[in-house]
Structures
1.
Amino acid sequence: MPKVRRILCHVSVEIVERQRVCHRDRAGHTIRKGQSCLVVTDNANRSTKNYCPECAYAILDQAEADLNRMKTELEDVGTSA
Ligand SMILES: [Zn+2]
């Protein structure tokens, strides 16, 4: 059985060791030492963006909705064939 390909390699959660700034609200959101944050890596320009837990939930909720929509699209095609 071939391994299932993982496609979310550019997204991870890290516990920060030094304070970071949330990319969504640089002035208002701080990620403090010991807090978790969502790290999104952009391989095209080799940059990473950090998001505080509050913003990370919104991003992951959107991703979940997108994944579910794609699953539904696959099912739609699958059943009409
Ligand atoms: Zn934030």
Note: The chain has one domain: 11-80.
2.
Amino acid sequence: MIKSLDKVLQDTNLNSQTLKALAENSFDSVLITDATARTKILYANKAFKNLTGYSPAEVLGKTPKILQGPATDKKVIARLAKTLSAGGRFEGKAINYKKDGTPFLMHWRVVPVKLGKNTNVWLAIQRETFSL
Ligand SMILES: Cc1cc2nc3c(=O)[nH]c(=O)nc-3n(C[C@H](O)[C@H](O)[C@H](O)COP(=O)(O)O)c2cc1C
């Protein structure tokens, strides 16, 4: 029987290692930001570097807005900003830019994660897509 992730994490008591291995080995880019309006990056995985060309170390403390540029759809970003301020989940696609300036189509999800009573973060899963 397949157990729920909750159950696995509880049973094995290995939740931080399990989640670390998941993030570090994911084919998709994973970004964690603080939950303030400034969305400062707290964590980026190796797949983020493969996707964007930015190393995790160089984006720490910056915001995912570094990925945006002239062709980024402002309507998508406005929808994201509205969703985040309402504490909701976002999914969308928009042109983003790699470190070397190459544009690509990003497909990403952002979900709020509650860590403690007063600590929230945003977690994003990102990948390149080829269709809008
Ligand atoms: C966890 C997280 C991941 C994000 N990832 C992206 C992204 O991959 N591409 C993008 O264009 N914006 C991304 N954003 C959106 C920007 O960080 C920012 O929230 C958005 O531009 C709205 O802010 P603004 O109204 O100041 O532009 C992400 C935001 C969060 C919280």
Note: The two ends are 37 Å apart (CA to CA).
